[in-house]
Amino acid sequence: MVTSHPHTSPHLTEAAARRRAARQREELIFRSLGLAALGLAALFLVALMYSVFKKSYNGFVQSFITLEIPLDAEILDPEDLAQYQASVGIAPNLWAAEITPTARSAKSASRKVQRTAAYKKMVEAMIDQNHGEAFTGYDSDRARNKAISQTAGMISTETLLTIRDRLVSGEYRLGENVTVRALAAGDADVLFKDMKRQTRKNLDSENWMLLKESIDANGLSVLTSWRDGGRVSIRPYLGVPRLDLLGWTILERQPGFFGSASSTQPERAGIAAAAQGTFLMLMVVVVLSVPVGVLAAVYLEKFAPRNQFTDFMEININNLAAVPSIIFGILGAAVIIQWLFPGSRGFPIVGGTVLSFMTLPTVIIAARAAIGAVPPSYEQAALGMGASRQQAVFQHVLPAALPGITSGVIIGLAQAAGETAPLLMVGMNAFIKDVCEAGAGCLMAKGVGMPSQIYQWAADDDPLFQNKTAAGIVCLLALVISMNALATFIRARFERSN
Amino acid sequence: MSQTDLRMQARDVNVFYGDDHALRGVSLDVPNRHVTALIGPSGCGKSTFLRCLNRMNDTIEIARVEGSILLEGEDIYGEDIDANLLRQRVGMVFQKPNPFPKSIYDNVAYGPRLHGMARTTEELNHIVEDALRAAGLWEEVHDRLDSEALGLSGGQQQRLCIARAIAVSPEVILMDEPCSALDPIATSIIEELILELARDYAIVIVTHNMQQAQRVAGTTAFFHLGDLVEVQPTDKLFNKPKDQRTKDYVAGSFG
What we know:
The structure holds 2 protein chains of 2 kinds. Chain A is built from 19 helices and 3 strands. By secondary structure, chain A is mostly helical. The radius of gyration of chain A is 33 Å and the shape is flat. Residues 95-101, 202-212 and 217-236 of chain A have low confidence and may be disordered. By secondary structure, chain B is α/β, with parallel strands linked by helices. Chain B has a single domain, classed as P-loop containing nucleotide triphosphate hydrolases (Rossmann fold). Chain B is built from 10 helices and 10 strands. In chain B, the strands form 2 sheets. A 6-stranded mixed beta sheet of chain B has the order 6-7-8-3-9-10, sandwiched between helices. In chain B, strand 1 (6-17) and strand 2 (20-31) form a beta hairpin. In chain B, helix 3 packs across helix 4 (121-134) and helix 3 packs parallel to helix 6 (154-166). The mean pLDDT of chain B is 92. Chains A and B meet through helix 15 and helix 16 of A and helix 2, helix 3 and helix 6 of B.
C-alpha cells in the first residue's frame, strides 16, 4: 500500500480537490432538484388519484332499501287508475272488477295516476301504520307528519315511478302488498354510505361508541349534525327517527353506474349513455380521420411536390395540432350545425366530426413520422422490380408503417375521447335519461359524451352528483389510460420486431 | 463483337442534377452474356450512369437525362416506354441487401406477381424455385421458404435480392456495389454467382473494388468526374491503360 508519494500527483493537489468537490456539489444539487421535481409530481398524482378514487366509490355503488308497501286503494282511486289505463289502451285490471270507467275527465285522472305524490303517500301511510310508534315526541302533528314525509323521501322517485308503471301495466294490483327493493334517494344514499363508513372506521373506538349511544338515544339526527354540522343535503332528515325502528333493510354495493343513463336524481345517474356517446363519436373519428389522415400523410410524405404550397400546408397542419379545441367546436357549431345541417345539434355524428377535425393533425403527423421512418430501401427495391411509385408505397411502405400509424391513431383517439370543450360547443352535453337503442340511428339522436357528462355532474353541488363526477372521471381515465397503454404496447412490439 | 450481341447501347448520355452536370456525354455498350464493370472514384458518375439504364433516376425530381439509351435497339427514354416494364427487363440489385420484410417466398414471388407472370400457384412455385436455384440459395432455404427474409445472413439476403431480380426474367441485371456491405466470404460467393449469371445475362456492375472488377468483369469502364475516360477489356484496362488518369487510378495514386 502506498502511503506517500515522492512527487505530488495532479490528483492530489488542493486545486483538483476543490474542483472535484465543486463538481460533486453541482451534481448533487442537480440530482436532488430532479428527485424533488419527480417527488412533487408523484405527490400531486397520488393526491389527485386518492381524492378521485375515494370520492368515486359512492358514485359506483347504490344503496337500496327493501320494504313492503301496501298499494292503498284509498289513496289512489281505482276508478282513476282504470280510466287512465283505458286512455293508454290497457284493459283495466283491478282488484274490484266491477268498477267501470265513468265520464270523469280522463285528463284529471291521468294527472293523479301519473304523479308520484299518490305513491309517496302510500309509503307515508305505511310508515305511519307500521312504525308510527317511532315518531313520538313532536311538538305538533304537523311536525310529526313532516318527519314521516321526510322518511318516505328516502325512497327514490325512480322507485315510485316504477311502482306506478307496474300498476298501470297491471303487474301490480291495487289493494295488494308489494315488497320493493327501493333505490335510496340521493341524500339518503350518501347518508347510508357515510354511516357505514363511520361504522367501519371507528367500530372499536371510544368515539364511535359514544356516537352510537347517542344515536340509539336520539336517533339519526345526532349523526347527521355530528357529521358536518348539518349540511344542506342532510337537513331533510333532521328529525327523522332511528332507521332501525323502521325495520328497513339497507343494502349497499349494488352497482348501477354502468347500466343507467343520466338522471336528475343523482342516485339514478349512470355513465351508460355517455359511454355510448363517446363510443359512437370515436367510431366517427376512426371512420373520418383514419382514411383521410393516413392518405394525406402518404401524399404529403411520398407524392406531394416540394414547393411553397406544400410547405405552407405542412406548417399549417403542424399548427393545427396546437389549436385550442374549443376553436374546433366553434367551427363545428358554425359550419355543420348552423350552415350545413341545421337541427343536427347534439348528434354524436356531429360531435365525432368535430373531434375528427381535431384528431386529423395528430393522425397526419404521426402517420408521416411512421412513413418517414420506413427504410427507403423497401421502396427502392420495389421500384427496381418495376413497381410503380404508388404500388411501392401501398404494398411496402404503408404496411411497414402500419404499427406506427396505429399507435398514432390510438393516441389521437384517446385525446379526442377526453375533449370537453368541442362537445359543449356542438351541444353534445344534452340531458340523456335513456340509453339509445336505435343502433346506428343513435348517431343522429341527441347524445352526450363522457367528458361533457362529467362536466354536467360536476356543476351540481349535490354530494352524490359529486361522487358520480368522480366515478365518471375514473371511467374516463381508465379509458384513456388503456388506450395509451395499447398504443405503447403496439409501438414497443413493433420496435422489438425490427 | 457484333452489333446483335449488344443488349444496351448508351449514346452521348448527359445527366444533370439541377445545375450540376453529373455525367458528360457518356457512350457505352452493354454486351450480352458478359459482365461490364464501372469503376472510378466516388462521385465520378458511375452509379448515376447505372441508374440511367433502368430509369431509376426518374424518381429523383431534379434529375434530367439527355442522349439516348437503347435496349434491343429501342430508346428507353422514348415516349412509348413504360418505365415500370423497363425495370422488369432491366433488373437491379442494390448496394445494401434490401429484401422486403416478408417471407423468402414472397420476396422472390413479388416481381412475377406484380407483372402477372404466373397464372397458377404451381407456375409461381416453379419460378421461385428456379430463381432461388439460379441465385444459389435454394439448397439453403428450400425448407424454410415461409420464414422471414430478414432472418437470413447479409450474404444470403443479397443472393435473395439477386433471386428476386432474376425471377422476372430480366434481359439485363444492374448491380450497384452489391458486395460493399458484405464480408469477404459472402463477397466471394456473390462473385462466383455473378460469373455464373453472366452465362445467361448481360450484367453491369458498379464497384469500388478494383480487384473485384478484375475478378468478374470482361469489360471495364473507368469514370472520372462525370466523364467516361476509358473502356477496355478488363485486363487491358488494368495492365495497359491508355489514359493517364486511368493509369493513376488503377495504380492507386488517387480514388
